[in-house]
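Q&A log
Question type: sequence-to-structure
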Amino acid sequence: GATGALSMRALPSGSYILRETKAPTGYSLSTLSHRVEVAASSDGVSVSVDGKTGADSHNLSVTDYPVGTTGTIVLSKTVVGDGADHTKPFEFTVTFSDNSTHSYQGQGVADGMISSGGKVSLADGQSIIIYGVAAGTLYSIAEKDYEPEYYSQTSTGSIGSVSADATSSASFVN
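Response status: OK
Response body:
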């Protein structure tokens, strides 16, 4: 609606994706999606949003940024090799030149927040999408050294500059 508020009632049991479909004039559309699970039982109805339950889990905030001011970063992990442990988490340190903090959406890993110098762990096939990074911000993403465990590493896009209304990708392969 005009106020930006959304209220949902009497949803049938099931899985839903909640995402913004129209941004205010002059603002970029948020690409962040929220997973909503509704389950009815004899005890009542339970709802989880992005895997979270409880009183505050249903309060969501969508941040729209003026067009031309921010971009996103996708960090992804791939593990190859016959003897590789595809469930092993690999640790990454993310640094932003403006020392900022950003929300991220996880693919195969929980959503969260990351500050400059912060760490995140990803296993094979997992990724995060970091939102709202100011255009022109320099970033670097470094993976912890796993060479002693016989994992060599290659990466693309681990250092870069965020472009307005664009997605930068950092891919790591062990």
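Response note: The chain has a mean pLDDT of 90.
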